[in-house]
Amino acid sequence: MALSETEHSAAQRIRVDLQLIADMVEPGSRVLDIGCGDGVLLDYLGHFKQVDGRGVELSQAGVNACVTHGLSVIQGDADTDLVNYPDHAFDYVILSQTLQATRDPRQVIEQMVRVGHAAIVSFPNFGHWAARWHLLWKGRMPETKGMPLKWYNTPNIHFCTIRDFVEMCRDMGLTIERAISINERGQANRVSGLWAANLFGEQGMFLLRRS
Fold it and tell me: Distance between CA atoms of 146 and 60, rounded to whole angstroms?
């Protein structure tokens, strides 16, 4: 069946990391996308995975953009509003490139695996070689493609590495069902060893469940 104009548009504009997240989601699932921005991922999942999608976005501009495109999105804060959702209200709770901007990342993850049967989390990896090189040779906080803003105007307040995240999940007793590192060329690799993933992965992406 031919794709509609809207579907073509969604397919063309989705980022590599968002496509990888979409690939983890089963068709027809109930999905909550936290920090959904302008709703690109929700739009894609609705068209190509027929999900029952909901979103939470902090910025009013993002909420307005989502609502304009017919998406079910409310204004909210991951740090404070997830407690209002009942247990297992969704099949997947997604947090894409937002963990580092939360005030209490561990508590946010805890709420995600409570609200959803599974959680999908992606974040920029501060252990990437380019960040290390920038800090070592320039003596300044890294500015890379994945972290392009200055230290004083970035929304990111809790940088972490892939190794940090894995160790936190272990401390929390969570099961990592899938772990992916994405390099600067957008190529995805399964995390089989933390040393290489931590050094060469510009982003980390994890599918989590309660043990």
Answer: 24
